[in-house]
Specification:
The complex is a heterodimer of chains A (399) and B (307). With 399 residues, chain A is of the alpha+beta class. Chain A contains 13 helices and 19 strands. Chain B folds into two domains: 129 residues, NAD(P)-binding Rossmann-like Domain (Rossmann fold, 3-Layer(aba) Sandwich); 145 residues, Succinyl-CoA synthetase domains (Rossmann fold). Classes of the chains: A alpha+beta (399), B alpha/beta (307).
């Protein structure tokens, strides 16, 4: 699960990580008021308005409605200007390298006090699957796309493993600080920052904590100017505070509905809907559709079986997508018998109706009975002998 | 011959909820020797399993079975009383890693974790705990391990298997079943099929299983089934290039998967441009692995690789 920058800073700030003073604003009036408060508190005339969406590249992104305006705007002329800029940003569509062409509507701004930036660094804690541990990644190249640093200048990327039994050892944090060119009190502050960050990562079950940039101020302070956090969905049950930060407006409504019914669904751009049991089979069903010249409209894993309710929900979700011209149901029965699955499909289709062709491939125990049930159901569906046959048939029927 | 499990395997079940009980029963019906169960609040009780023998499992066992499985409070007690030498974990996610560590603390040689949804941090800690202990963890989030007509540990349908010449190793459950069923229909059969699971941090990887199949005299070829996310397939390709004495066929799922999205499995995600199907396919081809263009062709690719 992803959260917004302001939420990440709230979590980090409460756990001892220095973050700039800031306030969230949902309306221009709130933005103006927040700017006024910040200027009064800090004595710094500069405040920054930062669009809060679940995508990176906000600083370089522009609004479709206001091509002159970037996703992050610097305010130098006081609270009134902040209100005016917020008026244009809120409700507008921000397009960044990560949002795709459709962009994302900005509904929240984070109003933050300006910083006296001396250096910008990069810092992240993430899982290294090959070693099965969290690692720290750091670089002197803050504020830029870290994937580019990794590709172009991999020697600038520093890396340390975090032993889960010990945590990040002081000598490791020291080494990274020195390699980043930090000395004296700033080095000390950095070591404290980094150590705390690795602790928070395991305490809150993060997939990723990324501080980009981490800034060193003119006065030598170490501050998280930006913060990105994403969390292990499997561990959310033990973090109600984090779970409550979910912003459903950032998620696809169909994907949310699917999740509530226990289906794993991801929407894609193609025209052939898929309903499959098992994640690997569901992925390769998309692949085989593409292999035979079609384009998959979605990933959908119904899990171990396929009962009438799940099938009905799946069909409703798949056909709500206007691009869908056909559905491929691909089920390997396994423990569940194919006649049980066939009756689930028939009941599900009868519940919601079917407006596009459907090809069903069933495999497993009692497959002949299952196929006969489908053939004799009077429904507008075609059975397939195997996955390849099914993929070819649906591409033809939907084409 | 086979790897990991055979007719002498003495299985212990950790977690006797609905799923755990159902699959323990299916394993007993298949002919697996289930000798113990562990449940913290049911120690001292006996769980009775009875029903019709699965005739596709261990042969010559008559028509019906009735087995009384003693329940113990701890893994240590279960091993001491029954000499169990393999464990299957069905414990729900919040307690799954603890169950794995308990089995490891008692030096259970083989631990097969079926549970889906274990927090990554728990697995990172469990993996660290297992370091240096004489145990092998398979999974979590996997279908299990089966040696046809000898021993079934996990949740796979037994009847699609047939004793034979090919080893199967996979990150995906249903794709394992596809491969197994094709091998059965082609008459190649399986020595052992191993699901290593779809999580980002797991106990056993392709390389470990390939090495076991490499040393198993009965295994003449191996099918490996990978998917997007991580670099386990690339590591396997290096191993095949340097060490594998037997032909390998492969399949990679997720060619059409969009980056940054988790495709059902917690570990099936392309992140930071890493873990793409294209990179894995290139690595497999460079290692001389015969690639199946679609999942329907996995058995045929194995036949081709065998020559």
């Amino acid at each position: 699960m992803k959260i917004h920058e302001y939420q990440a800073k709230e979590l980090l700030g409460a756990r001892g990580i220095p973050v700039p003073r800031g306030m969230v604003a949902m309306t221009p009036a709130e933005a103006e008021e927040a700017a006024g408060t910040l200027v009064a508190e800090t004595g710094n005339q500069v405040v920054v308005l930062k669009s809060q969406i679940h995508a990176g590249g906000r600083g370089k992104g522009t609004f479709r409605e206001h091509p002159d305006l970037r996703g992050v705007a610097v305010v130098k002329d006081g609270p009134t200007e902040a209100g005016e800029l917020a008026e244009r940003m809120l409700g507008s569509t921000l397009v960044t390298v990560q949002t795709g062409e459709s962009g994302k509507e900005v509904n929240r701004l984070y109003v933050e006090a300006g910083m006296d930036i001396a250096r910008e660094l990069y810092l992240a804690v993430l899982l290294d699957r090959a070693v099965g541990r969290n690692i720290v990644m750091a670089s002197t190249e803050g504020g830029v796309d870290i994937e580019r640093v990794a590709a172009e200048t991999p020697d600038k990327l520093l890396r340390e493993e975090v032993d889960p039994a010990i945590g990040l050892a002081t000598f490791q944090a020291n080494a990274i600080g020195w390699a980043l060119g930090l000395v004296g009190d700033t080095h000390l502050l950095f070591v404290r920052f980094l150590t705390r960050l690795t602790e928070i990562a395991s305490e809150l079950d993060t997939d990723l904590v990324e501080i980009n940039p981490l800034v060193i101020t003119g006065a030598g302070e170490v501050i998280a100017l930006d913060a990105k956090m994403s969390f292990d969905d499997n561990a959310l049950y033990r973090h109600p505070e984090v779970a409550s930060m979910r912003d459903e407006s950032e998620e696809d409504p169909a994907e949310l509905e699917a999740k509530e019914t226990g289906l794993s669904y991801i929407k894609l751009d193609g025209s052939i809907g898929c309903m499959v049991n098992g994640a690997g089979l569901a992925m390769s069903t998309m692949d085989i559709i593409k292999h035979f010249g079609g384009e998959p409209a979605n990933f959908l894993d119904v899990g171990g079986g396929a009962n009438a309710e799940q099938v009905a929900t799946a069909i409703r979700i798949i056909t709500a997508d206007p691009n869908v011209k056909g559905i491929f149901v691909n089920i390997f029965g396994g423990i569940m018998r194919c006649d049980t699955i066939a009756s689930g499909i028939i009941d599900g289709v009868n519940q919601v109706g079917l407006s596009v062709p459907m090809v069903v491939r069933l495999e497993g125990t009692n497959v002949e009975i299952g196929k006969r049930m489908l053939d004799e159901s009077g429904l507008n569906l075609t059975t397939a002998v195997d996955m390849k046959d099914g993929a070819q048939k649906i591409v033809e029927l939907a084409g | 011959m086979s790897i990991l499990v055979d007719r002498d395997t003495r299985l212990m079940v950790q977690g006797l909820g609905k799923t755990g009980r159902f699959h323990a029963d299916r394993s007993i019906a298949y002919g697996t020797r289930v000798v113990a169960a562990v449940h913290p609040s049911r120690g001292g009780q006996v769980e009775v399993f009875e029903g019709e023998v699965d005739q596709t499992g261990v042969p010559d066992r008559g028509d019906r079975y009735r087995v009384e499985v003693p329940i113990f409070r701890t893994v240590e007690e279960a091993i001491a009383a029954t000499a169990a030498n393999a464990s299957v974990v069905f414990v729900p996610p919040p307690g799954a890693a603890d169950a794995i560590m308990e089995a490891a603390a008692a030096s259970m040689p083989l631990i097969v974790a079926i549970t889906e949804g274990v927090p990554v941090v728990d697995m990172v800690e469990a993996k660290r705990y297992l370091e240096g202990k004489p145990v092998r963890l398979i999974g979590p989030n996997c279908p299990g391990v089966i040696t046809p007509r000898a021993c079934r540990i996990g949740i796979m349908p037994g009847y699609i298997h047939q004793p034979g010449r090919i080893g199967v190793v996979s990150r995906s459950g249903t794709l394992t079943y596809e491969a197994v069923y094709q091998l059965t229909r082609l008459g190649l059969g399986q020595t052992t099929a191993v699901g290593i699971g779809g999580d980002p941090v797991n106990g056993t990887n392709f390389v470990d299983v390939l090495a076991m199949f490499n040393e198993d005299p009965a295994t003449e070829g191996v099918i490996m089934i990978g998917e997007i996310g991580g670099t386990a397939e690339e590591d396997a390709a290096s191993y095949v290039t340097e060490n594998m004495k037997k032909p390998v066929a492969g399949f990679i799922a997720g060619t059409t998967a969009p980056p940054g999205r988790r495709m059902g499995h917690a570990g099936a995600i392309i992140s930071g441009g890493k873990g793409t199907a294209a990179a894995k396919i290139d690595a497999l081809l460079a290692a001389g692995i015969t690639l199946a263009p679609t999942p329907t062709d996995m058995g045929a690719a194995m036949l081709e690789a065998l020559g």
